[in-house]
Specification:
This protein is an alpha+beta fold. About 30% of the residues lie in helices and about 25% in strands. Helix 3 packs antiparallel against helix 4 and helix 6 packs across helix 7. The longest helix is centred in the N-terminal third of the chain and has 18 residues.
């Protein structure tokens, strides 16, 4: 069922200039606001029945990967939007070029942006503490060559050498499949306030709630990384209905 979700606040940002010289001079805030607009536009207008069917079909598989299927759905819908495609492309399952290997779930790219890429890690959420931990940081119960426990998680990947090491920002998209949104958000805040396994790198400085166009399913978390500040922009998309 395709519908416009009225509770989602969305304001179209200033138009991108046609002059290439001016395009190259636009700052990161301008480019990020363009990308937020397209993500919000997707969330406000996506076909819930189409996505629900894809999730149901994926769950029937012996080794289902619902998270990957939803991320693919988001990428395809973004790329199908002609307005988005004029300046951006959304790719997925792209291997990074960092010291520690990892794959980006959604990589939004623009050749006209100096930074060029906005990386998003995607994680399922259902109200359980287990998925909250995996969204932020969790013990994988595996050990490295020295015998130490290996920790992983969406947020952690920005601080363990895997993601966006040449940037000062990244993104997280939570796919809410069940549970109470407000309680899930509260659990994420509590988990983010814990020390990460990379302490002090990645430790939380502060959270700014409702950060993207004042939508209550968004927030920013500011962290320490290599003596500098690193910001993660979070969007929690409710796909439970």
């Amino acid at each position: 069922m395709r519908m416009e979700r009225q509770y989602i606040r969305i304001k179209k940002p200033a138009s991108l200039p046609t002059d290439m010289h001016r395009l190259k001079k636009l700052d990161d805030v301008f480019w990020k606001n363009q990308i937020f607009y397209h993500l919000l536009h997707f969330y406000k207008n996506y076909d819930s029945e189409e996505l629900k069917l894809k999730i149901q079909e994926e769950k029937k598989k012996e080794h289902s990967r619902v998270e990957r299927e939803i991320a693919k759905f988001v990428r395809l819908k973004l790329n199908a939007n002609r307005e988005f495609g004029f300046h951006f492309s959304a790719k997925g399952e792209v291997t990074n070029d960092e010291d520690i290997e990892g794959n980006y779930d959604i990589n939004i790219h623009s050749t006209n942006w100096e930074k060029k890429d906005f990386y998003f890690e995607c994680k399922n959420l259902d109200g359980s503490q287990d998925l909250v931990n995996k969204y932020v940081c969790c013990d994988t119960y595996k050990k490295d060559k020295s015998g130490k426990n290996i920790f992983d998680g969406g947020v952690l990947r920005y601080f363990n050498g895997k993601y966006a090491q040449s940037l000062d920002f990244g993104g997280m998209i939570g796919f809410i499949l069940a549970g109470d949104n407000a309680k899930i958000k509260e659990s994420l805040f509590k988990k983010l306030n814990e020390k990460l396994s990379t302490t002090p790198q990645g430790d939380l400085i502060r959270i700014t709630d409702n950060s993207i166009q004042e939508n209550d399913f968004t927030f920013d978390s500011l962290h320490k990384r290599s003596e500098k500040e690193f910001i993660i922009h979070h969007l929690l998309f409710d796909f439970s209905n």
